[in-house]
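[job 4417] fold queue: 2 targets
>>> target A
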Amino acid sequence: MKDTSKAYGEALFAIAMEKSKVQEYAESLETIATVLGEIPEYPMYLATPALPLSERLLAIEEAFGKELPEDVVSLLKLLCEHSHITALSEIIEEFFKLEMAVSNTITVTITSKIPLTEEQKEKLIKKLEDKYRKHICPIYQIDETLIGGFTITAEDQMIDGSVQKRLQRMKEVMKL
């Protein structure tokens, strides 16, 4: 199903690029993702073979037809018709991966014991942008189990600047 999700995500992204509507489609997919978060059983409802296809397509039209671009609604209907609607979350994820790649952006998760100040955030983002040579889309998290410092996860790489890590290094050095 991953290949199918990738193909649909790439196709929608290609259409969005061709029509210069990447931002509009991204916002539409965020709307759909919000609905899926609030009603996680919605894709299963749309995949139910016991319901006539016409009824499922009408449900999509009524839910999204007036709010979302026609191409996005058409994709939802196509997924429903071809029994791939349950892969919708993966398709949305694929679209956003492509959007981030084209815009030279990466998502970075920054975890600290206490909230960072705006000044700390700005400095940290600047350093990360210099390091990765990409625009940084930060996600800030609080982890009260940290003694201090922070951890950063970016592009499947972890930078551990926590006090625990420093203490662990000190222990290793002292054993030598």
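>>> target B
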Amino acid sequence: MTGILLLTHGRFCEGILEGVEMFMGEVEKLECLKLCSDDDVMLYRNQVAEYIKKLDDGDGVLILTDLMGGSPYNAAASWLNQFSAECVTGVNLPMVLEALESRPNMPVQELAEHCIKAAIDGIVNVKKHLGL
């Protein structure tokens, strides 16, 4: 089963994880690693590699980050050539829920693209959606 790693600035990933657990209960092979303002970025980068190794049971790891170009993104990107991993930015709750529901049915590369669509589809103008 594809492992999923949430990487964000601050406690954002912990909030997403809490939201996921409200919907699905405790989920296996889902981890989060926050980066705080006083953290050592090189240590964080190495922790990302350790989490990837821990989560990969042969099906790869989908890394979901908050912001393109930020330190969590850069830490993930630095390992993509060395591990069976994909990285998608702009993490949101619909993306994570879809990743968890779909991961048994598709390889990590396809799962990454599928999650992008789920994230985009989860963003709507409520007034327009309701016809108001």
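[job 4417] complete. Note on B: Strands lie at 3-9, 30-35, 61-65, 85-89.
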